[in-house]
Write the structure tokens for this entry.
Amino acid sequence: MERLKRRAALSVLIVAALMLTASVCLYLKSDAPQAMGASSVVMTSEKEDPVTQFRTEREQLRSRQTGELNDIIHDNSSDAETVNLAKRQLMDLMKRQEAEQRLEGVLKIRGFEDALVTVSDASVNVILRAQALTRQESAVILDLVLRETGVTAGNVKILTINP
């Protein structure tokens, strides 16, 4: 019975991760033209800052996921298969988080003060506060993302939000 509970909790974590990815994709979906393998969209800000809101929601979800995975890993009643799966998911989560932080840091150094990056297994989304990006800026950002993550250019989306 306890094993079923653990598997159910692990399934909930997987669904939560998929929902986060889907919400990012819906948030970023656009019909903008492709440029240098990435798309660039200008969005207007509303009353609440969407970058700050998204960053907060991402951190809260990741905190819950990490806690639940650690609970499974450290629960003596969890079977070895479930523990190993939870460990792999925790490592994947940490790798994505590290890549996001590394990319956000480099973008900040390059002058994009409030960059937000989301990394999934197959895609990367970069959200920047800027009126627009030049082709050269887009190319530099795309090159950085490709080098750091290994995803293909067609799976990178670069968006701008009016400052």
Q: What stands out?
A: The longest strand covers residues 124-129. The mean pLDDT is 80. The beta strands are 34-35, 38-39, 42-43, 116-119, 124-129, 156-161. The chain is about 60% helix and 15% strand.
